Amino acid sequence: MLATSGCHGPGNNDRTLLYFGCLTLCIALGTPAGYLVDIQTSYILKNQLNATATQISVFRLVTGIPVYVAFAFGLARDQWNPLGLRDRGFFLIFAPATAAAFIWIAFSGFSYAGLVIGMLLAMVSSRFVAAAFQGLIALVGQEKRMSGRLSALLNVVGSVPVVAGAFASGYISDHLAAREAFLLVATAALLVAVLGLWKPVSVFDHIYETPPARGADFLGNVRRLVKHKAVYPAVLICFLWNFAPGAATPLQFYLANELHASDSVYSFYNGIFAAAFIPTFLLYGFLCKKVALNKLLWWGTVIAVPQMIPLAFIQSADLALALAAPIGLMGGLATAAYFDLAMRSCPPGLQGTLMMLVDGVLALSARAGDLLGSSIYSSSPAHGFTYCVIATTVVYALILPLIALTPKALIATRDGEPNPEVEAAARNDVPRAERT
């Protein structure tokens, strides 16, 4: 995290945050993995194409394959320099390609095979955009010593479409035609390409010439990734944090079957839950400048471990909605701290690879956790959901020993504070003969 560009004043940091705020919002709105696209495709499959629940599940599994292997797109980002513009080149090429895929879906007529092909094309092209975005934000976070503030920003802005989608899902399905929804998402993707034309000095001034940006050839990069000790705790922590056996399908079934709540209650619960993260994300953006990351990791995890326990005692849908806010508040510090840790843990020149590895791990762990939770829930009609809550709490508690295994120097400093040991390691990480 060697600071060399000279653009570190408050004004430059504000412009950096503005740039990434705009980019985060457009990417969150223009991704095929987003809430709006998922709502529309599920309704098309169910209502227009008469797809079964199994067919919809298979559709989501198949079209999610590019997300599961996201690290490959990250590695491509770290090795490839499209149009000679690095990350901006990815935005200029693949954001329009993503938009084109959505436009094709909108006007080609809906069929099961057509949706699968179109969504796969959109997923593949959007993963290149995501790799460039994630790699760039991690690189800037390291070089400018602001990974904590960028983590808070990414999480706050990224939560907006999730919250809006959860509350507006019914309205969207009733008032926004499928074609219009896909065209709206295509417009957001095109805005990412427009942002690719923007080159703020506060972000791009010599950013690819700094030690954190230096990489090696393909095999050299793979070797460095495998040998980088900080990678393993960061990835495992993110895996465990998203591996929540009681948070998705079991909760949905518990609300509907045991508490006799309407389908909208689960959507509203998710909206309140996601919105409640935002205040603690903002708090993290303040605290990370005052407190070292090691303390924030411990504090955030200790608060988050019992996060799901209140759900074991709910007796009504109204109480579930009331508890969604405090439950969400308990998870914000941990989430921001784990993304902060992931950014700091990136080996020089491999920011895209590690951040996309985390992205894929988050998706896989969510699917695996939900699968395990569904099995646990089905195992006991009387106590299945309680067992899911216990399993989730145990999984979260396993994060604590992983924090102790994280390299101490990496998490010993506050946001903005020099870290000579880590910065020296970045300078020396890539042998001169391997540098590209």
Topology:
Layout: H1 10-29, H2 35-48, H3 53-63, H4 65-68, H5 70-79, H6 87-107, H7 112-143, H8 147-175, H9 178-196, H10 201-204, H11 218-227, H12 231-242, H13 249-258, H14 263-287, H15 293-304, H16 317-329, H17 332-345, H18 351-379, H19 384-397, H20 399-405, H21 420-428
Helix pairs in contact: 1-7, 1-8, 1-9, 2-8, 2-9, 5-7, 5-18, 6-7, 6-9, 7-8, 7-18, 8-14, 8-17, 12-17, 12-18, 12-20, 14-16, 14-17, 15-17, 18-19
In round numbers, the mean pLDDT is 89
Radius of gyration from CA coordinates: 21 Å
Count the E strands: 0
Net shape: globular
Task: Provide the β-strand percentage band.
Answer: under 5%
The biggest beta sheet, please? none
- Measured between the Cα atoms of the first and last residue, the distance is 19 Å
CATH topology: Growth Hormone, Chain: A
Determine and state the CATH class.
Mainly Alpha
Look at the structure and name the CATH superfamily.
Answer: MFS general substrate transporter like domains
* Secondary structure tally, helices: 21
**Poorly predicted regions:** 1-7
How many domain regions?
A: 1
CATH architecture: Up-down Bundle
| SSE string, helices as H and strands as E | HHHHHHHHHHHHHHHHHHHHH
Helix fraction, binned, reads over 70%
Structure class: mainly alpha
